[in-house]
Design a protein that fits this description.
The chain is an alpha/beta fold. It is built from 14 helices and ten strands.
Length: 324
């Protein structure tokens, strides 16, 4: 009887063990999903490292690259937001410390002597110059640039623009030349030189008095204009700043391209792209489709609403049909 009791207990323990394992298996399936639904890792053990600037777009735009590659089955090393400057970021990819970055085609004027910078004011023209240069000299591939152009531009409130019929820089020049009141807030570096404000003045035919019509303030000061502080009614901004919608502001179009273009461009080491050529097919349509409105929305979600970059990127890519 004692022997039979021991056997019975062992059988019972065995049944309990099977039941526990079965329940554990059910819990694992619910928490991780069906393994068959997960894309097969195409570069297992060979992650693609992606670095971007430590500013808003380093996260908002950089995460588009990260999440698109993950969704398509690539293992990545996410270093978005880690580079303190464009120079640091570029040096990292030149030194093969990272595999991918994203940069702006307008920044390329400081990477090599391309002669006349007018090429970098035209969509795709400056991009082609730096694309060919970096491919030949540095074995870097600039993928397709965005339609979006995050250049320097003057902004004002939507209410003020509507009241004074100011939509573009021709309208702004007319407003100035007719004696309209101007208090333009700008960093000191944008006041002088062949480009920037002097270039706009020459191209559009107006002149601002530096003592009475400009206010020097470092950084970007759109909130001062939105609040009318110190009589400010115009300011220098980046075209796709996330704060513009929040502050009910609008940019004044620059149809003659006084400023250089700053389109978003993923850049990848040729060695890596040769191993995984599909990456170009994944990212080119995403970036070519980014408009100024799209970029401003992405930046607003991260900068103003404080949402995590990966969450915003996944939402955007899903809405645009790049994710299911």
């Amino acid at each position: 009887m004692k022997y039979k009791g021991i056997i019975g207990k062992l059988v019972l323990l065995g049944l309990l063990s099977v039941l526990i394992l079965a329940l554990a298996g059910c819990g694992s399936s619910e928490s991780t999903g069906d393994a068959n639904d997960q894309p097969k890792i195409k570069n297992a053990g060979d992650p693609i490292s992606i670095a971007t600037l430590s500013e808003v777009e380093g996260t908002s735009v950089g995460q588009l690259i990260v999440q698109a590659l993950i969704h398509n089955g690539y293992e990545v090393e996410d270093k978005t937001g880690s580079a303190a400057s464009v120079d640091v970021m570029r040096q990292a990819i030149l030194n093969k410390e990272v595999d991918m970055i994203f940069d702006y085609d307008g920044d390329a004027v400081s990477y090599a002597d391309f002669g006349d910078m007018d090429a970098f004011r035209q969509p795709g023209v400056g991009w082609k110059l730096i694309h060919d240069y970096d491919l030949e000299h540095n074995q870097l591939v600039w993928l397709e640039p965005s339609e979006a152009n995050n250049t320097f531009i003057i902004a004002t409130t939507k209410e003020f623009a509507a009241a004074n019929n100011i939509k573009n820089m021709h309208d702004f020049a007319r407003y100035v030349n007719e004696g309209g009141e101007v208090k333009l807030i700008t960093p000191s570096y944008w006041i002088d030189g062949d480009q920037n404000l002097p270039g706009m003045e020459q191209l559009y035919g107006f002149k601002l008095d530096r003592n009475t019509q400009t206010i020097i303030a470092e950084g970007l000061n759109e909130r001062m204009v939105a609040e009318g502080k110190d009589g400010a009614n115009f300011c220098l901004v980046f075209a796709n700043q996330g704060s513009l919608n929040e502050l009910n502001m609008t940019v004044i179009d620059d149809p003659l391209n006084a400023e250089l273009r700053y389109s978003y461009c993923p850049i990848i080491r040729q060695e890596v792209l040769d191993k995984y050529p599909e990456i170009a097919d994944i990212l080119n349509p995403i970036f070519k489709g980014i408009t100024n409105d799209d970029a401003r929305y992405l930046n607003e979600q991260v900068q103003v609403n404080g949402r995590p970059g990966p969450e915003v990127a996944i939402e955007y890519l899903t809405q645009k049909g790049f994710m299911q």
